Amino acid sequence: MQNFIHFYFILFIQSIMSILVENISKTFGNYQALSQVNLEIKNGSLVGLLGPSGSGKSTLLRILAGLEIPDSGRIWLEGQDATNFPLQQREIGFVFQNYALFPHLTVAKNISFGLDIRNIEINLKKQRVQELLQLVQLEKFADRYPHQLSGGQRQRIALARALAVEPKVLLLDEPFAALDAKIRKQLRGWLRNLHQEISITTVFVTHDHQEAMELAHEIVLLDNGRIIQVGSPNEIIDYSPDNSSNRFRNTSNSFSFSFPG
Ligand code: ADP
Questions:
Q1: Total structural domains in the chain?
Q2: pTM of the prediction?
Q3: Residues 144, 257 within the same domain
Q4: First CA to last CA distance, the chain
């Protein structure tokens, strides 16, 4: 009977969780980048992975995306064991820090890239690109090339491109780090509104304490390849049992506003 209840409990948890990270470890040579990481991410949530440089944030995000293979542990996506799924099979949209747009393609062509390789019917494709341009508020820029856009606009196009294939999860690796402080602040507000509109499960990496506080519903604090706390922005502020997050906060404050423009 107990096994029976346990089985249904696991099924229930998997149905409300978009992502389950189970005991993930990863080494690079002798370096332990992640050590037995466990994490549950609810459907539709907006989660920030926060920690100092080298704490393992990007490695965890890349493992979620299938861009990196863990040494041990499992990744569950919507109840399916996706540990060995390649990126294409995971229904994930990934946005890199440096936009990674195709310079020789127009904005519209950049957005439709994922649809082109899926052989979507031309009118449907046009309609989808139009919807996405509206969503990221760049309708007038369809025929421009990436070099004719500002950094913030480029990153919005990168987001539209990631959303084009209707992923179940959106992963963002330091999406605003290359932008200046004012644009970063605007884009945080914009991304939060966008998330409210489309409610896609979103995980972003940042080492900017303020960015995590302003943007995330839930923050996952990493240090030395381990999760040291998971909580709402308010809970993270209050955290101090062994001062690890305070130590990090002090570190991050000293460089969080020194990005290049
Ligand atoms: P963060 O995103 O928190 O800055 P990363 O996950 O990028 O940290 O990296 C964690 C550690 O793993 C760092 O010390 C980094 O140098 C190392 N690392 C990450 N990727 C590789 C790789 N492909 N090869 C070797 N070492 C790596």
A1: 2
A2: 0.85
A3: no
A4: 61
